[in-house]
Amino acid sequence: MEQPKEAARSAAGTTGARCQIDIDAHGGYGWRLVASNGRAMAVAAVSFASPGTCRSAFVALCAEHAQTSGGIQHRKGGGGWIWIMRDKSGIPVAASPRTYERHATCRSAYDRFRAMLPGLEVEEEAFWGSS
Fold first, then answer.
1. What CATH number is given for 17-117 in this structure?
2. Radius of gyration of the chain (CA)
3. What is the dihedral of CA 130, 23, 81, 13, to 10 degrees?
4. Are 117 and 68 in contact (CB under 8 A)?
5. Euclidean distance between the first and final Cα of the chain, in Å?
6. What is the pTM of this model?
7. Does residue 25 come out as left (phi exceeding 0), alpha (psi in the -120 to 50 range) or beta?
8. N or C, which terminus of the chain has less Cβ within 10 Å?
9. Which of 18, 85, 23 is nearest to 48 (CA)?
10. What does the pLDDT average to over 56-63?
11. Alpha-carbon distances, residue 13 vs 25, 106, 131 (angstroms)
12. Phi and psi (nearest 5°) for 42?
């Protein structure tokens, strides 16, 4: 049974979450999902040529979240855990915004992000917060 959108949103704890589009050091654009407490929850795994393309990629991720895969892995060179989400083609689409010291903490952050995706109100302009 499908939950009403508002119930799913409350269950996922997405109230106050917003997506910001940032410019990287090379002039590309990437999205960053920010929780109501100001902490980044996830970032784009790739860079985009324009803010519009970046925004469309995040909207597509939300719409196609059920077809994604991913998980936890050790950071290159050691020193912690990160999570990565891949689309159905295996291309990275989202990543953890930081390295986690504990595997369990990283797993929990990844699970929260996945659970949040279906309840995000990506069509609302207020969701697209300023950087």
1. 2.30.29.80
2. 14
3. 20
4. no
5. 37
6. 0.84
7. alpha
8. N
9. 23
10. 95
11. 32, 18, 22
12. -165, 155
pLDDT the model gives residue 88: 93
Q: Which two tokens stand for residue 37?
A: 């407490």
Residue whose pair of structure tokens reads 């719409």 in the numeric block: 63
Rounded Cα gap, residues 6 and 14, in angstroms: 10
Instruction: Specify whether the CB–CB gap between 112 and 35 falls below 8 A.
Output: no
Pairwise CA distance, residues 14 & 21, whole Å:
18
CA distance 23 to 32: 11
Query: Which residue is listed with tokens 């929780």?
Result: 35
Report how far Cα 63 is from the mean position of its chain's Cα atoms: 12
